[in-house]
Write a structure and sequence with these properties.
248 residues; alpha+beta; Alpha-Beta Plaits; eight-stranded antiparallel sheet; 10 helices
Length: 248
């Protein structure tokens, strides 16, 4: 596995495409993270260390795995990265040479949510768009949120390999956290307008939960929503499995 510094989400997508061209089935993880998100992890999480010489605007964590013996994945990883470095797609890269180094790189990704919590209040958007549209979505959604709330800090990260992006917004510096959290519908709606434009989904790996039921009639209304309600009523008429009103 490796951690790569890249200049943009477009370069991250270009790197993903190169790995796909070599052996798509071996890509077990391809995680995109922003420079701001990594800076929060380095600031708030004890023991977090950036294994690159300089910070970057974006980072990619790429891990390869296969059940095939003698697949030569490390050679492939290093070969793709060497070419990407030469072509300017990757600014810098660190390849894990041990389980300890691998765990240290994964820590940078896995501690994003905790680091954002320690930095302040955040509104989370677990959305997905086609992989090829991730960079454009991120640019446009960032611009929309900055117009809606000047000073808001955009902290996207997630599974670029399948288009699932946690497009999180951190409160502006100095803003009251409770006031910021009270704007969650306006922020989520602004993001989802861009999601819709790029043929994506307002809900990805974390489902609807308690924050998104109000979106259901618009995104999954009519017969589809009625069918979901009927299934819910049939298997859990008392609402025991999900306290509270999950579907409108």
């Amino acid at each position: 596995m490796a951690l790569c510094g890249v200049a943009s989400a477009d370069d991250a997508l270009a790197l993903f495409t190169r790995f796909q061209a070599h052996d798509a089935a071996s890509i077990s993880a391809f995680e995109l993270m922003s420079g701001l998100g990594i800076s929060f992890v380095l600031k708030h999480i004890p023991g977090a260390v950036l294994p690159l010489a300089e910070p970057a605007p974006f980072y990619v964590l790429v891990e390869l795995a296969t059940p095939r013996p003698n697949a030569g994945l490390r050679d492939m990883l290093e070969g793709v990265l060497e070419q990407a470095l030469g072509d300017g797609i990757v600014q810098d890269a660190a390849v894990a040479g041990s389980d300890t180094q691998r765990a240290a790189i994964w820590k940078l990704r896995e501690e994003h949510s905790e680091a954002q919590k320690r930095e302040g209040a955040s509104v989370k958007n677990d959305v997905s768009v086609p992989v090829s549209k991730v960079p454009a979505f991120m640019r446009e959604a960032t611009a929309a949120c900055e117009v809606l709330m000047p000073g808001v800090r955009v902290v996207p990260f997630g599974h670029m390999g399948d288009g699932n992006i946690h497009f999180n917004l951190e409160q502006p510096v100095g803003v009251d956290p409770q006031w910021f959290l009270a704007q969650d519908h306006a922020i989520m709606d602004a993001v989802n307008e861009v999601v819709r434009k790029y043929d994506g989904s307002f809900s990805a790996e974390h489902g609807i939960g308690k924050l998104k039921p109000y979106m259901m009639p618009d995104w999954r209304g009519g017969a589809e929503l009625r069918l979901m309600q009927q299934i819910k009523a049939a298997i859990d008429p008392a609402g025991i499995m999900s306290p509270g009103k999950v579907l409108p």
